[in-house]
Amino acid sequence: MSEYQSRITEPNQVPDFRKDYKLDRLAEHFNVAQFVSFAPSAAEPRQQYARLANLPENSRFESLKAALEALFERSADGTVNVRSFSETETQSREFLYALKTVDEAAAAIRRIAAEGAHTIANETIDVSDGGVSGVAMGGLVEFRPDATPRGVERPGFASLPTAWATQLFKIVYGFDPGLEASDIARIEFSLHPRARGWRQTNTIFWEYSDIDHFDRSADVRWPNDFSRLIGDKAYGLLIGHVVGLPVPRTTVISRRVAPFTFGRVTGSAEQWIRTAPFVQVPGKYTTARGWQDPFRLMQSEDPEGVAIASVIAQQGIPADYSGAAIEASDGELIVEGARGTGEGFMQGSVGPQSLPAKVLDAVGVTHAELRRLLGSVRFEWVSDGVSIWVVQLHIGASQSLGSALVPGEATHWVDFDVADGLEALRQLVASLDQDTGIYMNGSVGRTSHIADVVRKAGVPTRLRGMGDHQKT
Predict the structure, then answer these.
(1) pLDDT tens-digit profile of 28-41?
(2) Domain identity same for 203 and 255
(3) Residue 311 shares a structural domain with residue 229
(4) Is there a contact between 399 and 406 (Cβ–Cβ < 8 Å)?
(5) What is the pLDDT of residues 117-142, one digit of tens each?
(6) Pairing status of strand 461-463 against strand 436-441
(7) Could you tell me if 118 and 183 lie in one domain?
(8) The pTM is what?
(9) Would you call 115 helix, strand, or coil by DSSP?
(10) Which of 392, 366, 165 has its CA nearest to residue 280?
């Protein structure tokens, strides 16, 4: 038995419903939200346990008011919560959130005590401070922002192996979350940019329970609520870095999280600036060579703050070839690209060019490693003549097959000239009636943003006169 198990599950005479006792035992090894608990009595509620920063464990206070004053003084947000429980109502009793004054909290505790229930008064922890909450157990971490740990019971949470999640949290938040005990237990936790709790660290532990057997594995996919927090493009690159692929040195400047940096030095002093929408919008927002004011860029392209989560500054790569790779619906790996940095190819103004065999082989090796770690993927790449760099990464296979960018039949078909560009294509897609498909005229890559736009829209689309596209 581990040290954690022996200390937290030791035999005792305290009834199982006593949540405050369990919280006090948890605090022996972990950082918990600061709290004071009370038992009902005929007179004043009786203090039971207390864990307050910079005070000895279970310090005794002369009165209910004195205990609450000490708690309010230490609450980062200046408010406290009051939750109640009893032997017959351990889960469903009253919960009061963000009480603002000592008198308000004291009155609530006295009222609840008169009803025969126990109470815990704890500092309010803001779950919308840019941090995350979740559950870690058996080598798996599930988490999301703007929610309590129970938020993982709803769709949209992120899921990663513990080692990957730990590395991601270190990069984004700058500290180790300390989730090692989850190898042998189920832990509910939350991470916060500002130190909280009775130990004044950045990880709050809410619950610890033993597990006998756990056979689930991480389901690594996005978009999810955390990728929306930092931006789809930023999250994909971060995952690529965490799993060990060459990702250029990247700094993420986010609306809600302090700037963070990851990736490898490329050998170039040049910077690229890229916008990272909440979810992927192929080719719509700025990607530019050279530095731009990231705050002005976000303001000009998304003044309402409803589309772009962050701007990323990325070291340039001395590019000899650039392009993209996708998996077709039949499993075929399609690798396309062009000489140089690849902007024209991805935007559709430059058609696919013949790629050297060594580049195709190297992209194939990168794809094989990503597929082994993540399953089906789509990614943009740059070759510097030595390495293949991953500059965008998305999960999942493409629906394309042969000349059908988007399979499906339509009653009516319209033509689109690739030379008209991405924005003209977006306008066409938005204007189409149901049961209408598109024929693409011109040389365009099946891995380009042109293809991504119709795939995301789900409009049946065919390539006219498709040339020879390379594959591995």
Answers:
(1) 999 999 999 999 98
(2) no
(3) yes
(4) yes
(5) 999 999 999 999 999 999 999 899 99
(6) parallel
(7) no
(8) 0.86
(9) coil
(10) 392
